[in-house]
C-alpha cells in the first residue's frame, strides 16, 4: 500500500463508512482546516484538540484535515502576520516565515519571545477568521458529504409482515 493510500485515502474512506453523520463530519473537517492554519507553525494540534473537546467533534476527521492542511498553514502565516500588522500597526515588515521556522528549530522559546507581538497579532487575526472560515468550509462540505454518505447513515426500516 502506498503512502497516499495508507495515510490519506484509507482514513477518509474509514471516516465516510464509519456511520458518522454528514453534519458531524463536515463540522469536524471544517474546524480541522481552520484550526490547522493557526499562525504558529508546529502547534496547530492545540486549537484542533481544543475545538474537538469544546464542540464534541470527530477527532479523527479534525486531525486528518489538520495534517492535510500543513502546507496551507505555512502559506497562511504571512497573511495573518500582514493583516495583524496592518490592524495593530506593528513592525510586521521585518517578519519572515523562514526566519521564524529556523528560529523555532534552533531555540523555540527565544524565537517566540522575539516574535511575540507579531505572532499575537496574527493570532488575533486568525480568531477573527476562525468563525467565518469554519462556516464557509462547513457550508461547502455539508452538501457534498450529505450526498456522498447521506444514504449510508440512514437507518433502514424493518419490514413488518
TrEMBL record:
Provide the leader sequence positions: none
Task: Please provide the record's keywords in A-Z order.
Answer: Membrane, Transmembrane, Transmembrane helix
Instruction: Please tell me whether the keyword Membrane is annotated for this protein.
Output: yes
DUF2062 domain boundaries: 13-148
Kindly name one Pfam family recorded for this protein: DUF2062
Q: Does the keyword Iron apply?
A: no
Segments traversing the membrane: 37-57, 64-83, 123-145
The entry's protein name is DUF2062 domain-containing protein
Q: What organism does this protein naturally occur in? A: Saprolegnia diclina (strain VS20)
